[in-house]
Each structure stands twice: as structure tokens, then as C-alpha cells.
User: Fold this.
Amino acid sequence: MIDAPVLVLNRNYQPVNVTSVKRALVMLYMGVAHALDGEYQLFDFQSWADLSAELEHSVGTVNRRIRVPRIVVLQVYDRVPVGRIRFSRHNIFARDDHTCQYCGKTLARRLLNLDHVVPRSRGGRTNWLNIVTSCIRCNFKKGGRTPDEANMRLLRQPRQPRWSELVHPPRLRARYREWLPFLSPVDASYWNTELESD
Assistant:
């Protein structure tokens, strides 16, 4: 539960990231973000913790249970991040949707690792174009060979992802119904269109 995904919105209610419950609770506690409930009400940490006792999806602390937020809204940040995407395990797993690129199984992170398509022993580089997510079994089967030599086929050729692909990965797009108004372009335009004032 502590590693479950939480949608992060900027203060204009635009999606900027997907983080873990653990990180979202830290952001709430520090006052950097507020939790958003299904009725689109914002809660600071204390009011969220007070609300939490009566609901089923929660995590335990030393002295109470706290409801797991599905969405948090940053209090100061109003930009949509663009630019360079860090070459990290997290982003590689997100690009590949936590799916082994050889057998197609979607697994927990602890059951996945990274594989060099062209092995390093053969001059393969460690970059977006040569690293894929692999289950342990397929990585062991492939060994120090290329996919062709191991008689294995890649589901997709590795490439550097765009920012929007990491914020809106297909598997997370409809993960929780609470996310839908912020990830669907039609719904997002409804929530983010500037209204005329009198």
C-alpha cells in the first residue's frame, strides 16, 4: 500500500507526476501539498488525518491510521515540467510500464531488473536506446547474448520517452476513478478552462 501510485497535480490542477503513497504523505505532512478527495475538497495533513479514521484504504502510523490519498495538489508549483527526463530506474520502469520487454509479464518492481539489449561485454551502452525492463527469468535466459542470439524478441524497441508518457503511462491512466477528470483531455479542459468573471 505504501508504494501505491498517487497522482500529483500542480496548483492549477494539471498532472505533473505520479509518486508513491509514502512520498505523498511526506508532502502532506510538510505542507507542500494538500490531499484532494472524491468531492474535490482540499485537505491539509491534520484535516486529512482526522478524516482518515473512518475509511478502509489506510496506512498505520504509531498512533493512528491515515487514509491513502489518491491525488495530491502542490501548493506553490504552477508549471508543467518539460525538458530533460532523468535516465533512472524509476523512469525506465515507467516507460516500459513495469512489463518485461521479452515475455510481456507485468510484475512488481522487486521482480524486475534492467537488461542491456546489446550486452556491455559487446560494447552495448547504458542509455535509453539500449536498456529495457526485464524479468529475472528472461534476463537470466538471455545472458550475455543479443536477443537474436538468445532467440528472444523485444516487445518494443527501447527509446527515450517524452514527459507526457511518464506522467500519463497507459497502465496508470485509469488506475483510480478519482484520476480520470485530470488525465482525460476533455475532462482536464473542463477543469482548467479559465472562467469569465462578472
Notes: The first strand starts at residue 5 and ends at 9. The two ends are 46 Å apart (CA to CA). The domain at 84-161 is CATH 1.10.30.50 (DNA Binding (I), subunit A).
